[in-house]
Structure formats: structure tokens, C-alpha cells
Design goal:
This protein folds into 2 domains: about 110 residues, Nuclear Transport Factor 2, Chain: A (Roll); about 130 residues, no CATH class. The protein has 7 helices and 15 strands. The protein is about 25% helix and about 30% strand. By secondary structure, the protein is an alpha+beta fold. Strands 6, 7, 8, 9, 10, 11, 12, 13, 14 and 15 form a 10-stranded antiparallel sheet that branches. It is elongated and about 110 Å long.
Length: about 300
């Protein structure tokens, strides 16, 4: 029979052993966590590698693509524009490849807010994506990518990409329509698909028939947009000017109907020059010059 004193001593020894095991276990877990953090910190990823890890950890649907690419399109103040795409070989000749890029998504990463947006469909109504934010914790993206910790974007201020000026229609058509060079198109004439969920649809509705659109640089407080549809036999291009959610003015700037070709150029000063020809081989003639006034109206010069 164990007396009370002996039982108390045995109980104290048992409790001491339990506490010692717990402390050793906690130290072991703490040591493992520390080693994991140190291992991540010593990787010293490049800016491109950090961005790739973020995109791959996100809920962007990439399961349907066996091979895809993630490129940093532009780093601007406190944001990173990201292009996700895959490559297609259009050549029937196995000895000679004809590679074109096909966009999967355009993304915008805002490190200050630790947010990632999908701006593919509508840059004015972005979709927020989930991603592993520990990547930003363990990697100094500000220093590596030279990102500003100031000038934080608000969700409503997310920038959309605009075309460059001067806008040359012939160059645009070759890059974005036929024969098509998606990389050049994305760089010089970024286009967006018209979607009924977009903010632009709320403004335009069914007033114009088009499938895609391209933003031009803002002039004063006015937002010029080129609307176009090249999915049918008759191709039409309209220039509209928007302010405060309303269409201020519009102009038919290009049309191809099989009988004649009307196209345009837009200068850096926003002079809009229209041309017309019987066909692609016929010399085109200038048929009018227009300009966007300070009040947003388009007038003929």
C-alpha cells in the first residue's frame, strides 16, 4: 500500500515529466517554424519570381492550361500590371513555327493593400482574387520590385490601360485584327471585351453594336473610347467621349462594308483624320478632319 507522502512525490514527478515534454515539444515546433521562415527569407526571390508565386497561389483558373506564362507588364508607383497568357503555334509547317500569344488574364497587384485584381473583362469593375499573402510577408516586394509604399490606390481608382497616341489605324489593324500580333496589340492598343456586366454597358447599353473597345488617354476630364466590331462582314468603329457616366459626343470613324474602306488616324493633339478608299489597293483620300473640344464635343474642322 502506497502511503500519502509517497503518492504525492510520485504525482509531482509525473507532472514534472509532462511539463518537460510539453516545453521540449513547444521548442521543437518553434524551432521548425523559425527554420521554415529562415529558409523562405534566404531564397531571395527576384521580382518576377515573387509575382509568379503570387499568381500561381491565387484562385485564378489556370487548370485548363498545361503551359502558361506570367509576365510583368508594367510597374507603376505602387502597382504591378501582370499579363498571364499561353502561346499558340499557327503554322502548319513543323519546321517553321508561327507563335502568337493568347491572353488568359490581365491582373493588377497592389502590394500596399495586399490585393490582387483581375481586370481582364472590365478594368473599371475589377474582380478581387484570393492569394497566399504569406508570400508578401516573407518577401520584401517593395525593395525587390522597387514599389512605392505611398500613393496607395483605392479600388475605385484602379487604372485601366490606354492606347498610345498617335493612333494609326493601319498599325492597329495589323496588330489587333489581321494578321494579329497580340504582344504588340497589348502594348500599343490594349483592348477589352464588351460585357453586359461592365460599367461601360451601363453607360452605352445597346446604343452601339460592338464587341470590343479600347480606351484612349484622358483629355481634360473626358474619357475617349473607341468601340468596334469586326465579327461580321461589316466592320464599324466609333469614337465616343464620356464624362460622369454620360456620352457627350460620338463619331463614326471607320467602316468596311465590302464596297469601300473608311479608316482614320488620331494625332497626339487629338486631331481625328478620316480617309476613304474603294479597296485596300486603292489610294485613300482624306475626307474630313475633326477635333475634341474642351467641352467634350467632336467638331469638324
Amino acid at each position: 500500500m502506497i502511503n500519502k507522502k509517497t503518492f504525492t512525490i510520485l504525482l509531482l514527478i509525473l507532472l514534472n515529466n509532462i511539463l518537460s515534454c510539453k516545453q521540449n515539444s513547444d521548442k521543437g515546433l518553434s524551432s521548425i517554424a523559425k527554420q521554415e521562415k529562415e529558409a523562405i527569407n534566404t531564397q531571395k526571390l527576384t521580382c518576377q519570381e515573387i509575382v509568379e508565386k503570387i499568381v500561381k497561389s491565387s484562385d485564378l483558373n489556370l487548370k485548363d492550361y498545361k503551359n502558361y506564362f506570367i509576365d510583368i507588364d508594367k510597374i507603376e508607383s505602387d502597382s504591378i500590371s501582370i499579363h498571364v497568357y499561353f502561346e499558340n503555334n499557327l503554322s502548319d509547317d513543323p519546321k517553321q513555327k508561327q507563335i502568337v500569344e493568347s491572353t488568359i488574364a490581365w491582373l493588377l497587384l497592389l502590394p500596399n493593400e495586399q490585393t490582387l485584381y483581375n481586370v481582364t473583362v472590365d478594368p473599371e469593375k475589377p474582380v478581387e482574387l484570393k492569394f497566399d499573402k504569406k508570400i508578401l510577408t516573407y518577401n520584401d516586394i517593395f525593395r525587390t520590385c522597387e514599389i512605392s509604399k505611398d500613393n496607395i490606390h483605392l479600388k475605385g481608382d484602379i487604372k485601366y490601360k490606354t492606347a498610345i497616341l498617335p493612333f494609326n489605324f493601319k498599325d492597329f489593324y495589323a496588330a489587333c485584327v489581321y494578321p494579329s500580333d497580340e504582344k504588340k496589340c497589348n502594348e500599343n492598343y490594349p483592348k477589352y471585351d464588351y460585357d453586359k456586366k461592365s460599367e461601360l454597358f451601363k453607360i452605352i447599353g445597346n446604343k452601339f453594336h460592338f464587341s470590343e473597345y479600347t480606351y484612349l488617354p484622358i483629355i481634360n476630364d473626358f474619357k475617349p473610347v473607341i468601340l468596334y466590331d469586326n465579327t461580321s462582314d461589316i466592320e464599324s468603329y466609333y469614337l465616343i467621349v464620356i464624362k460622369n457616366g454620360k456620352i457627350i459626343s460620338n463619331l463614326l470613324i471607320a467602316r468596311m462594308d465590302g464596297e469601300s474602306i473608311q479608316d482614320f488616324n488620331i494625332t497626339k493633339e487629338y486631331a481625328i483624320i478620316l480617309y476613304k478608299a474603294k479597296n485596300s489597293n486603292d489610294p485613300k483620300k482624306e475626307i474630313g478632319r475633326y477635333k475634341i473640344l474642351d467641352n467634350g464635343n467632336i467638331i469638324k474642322l
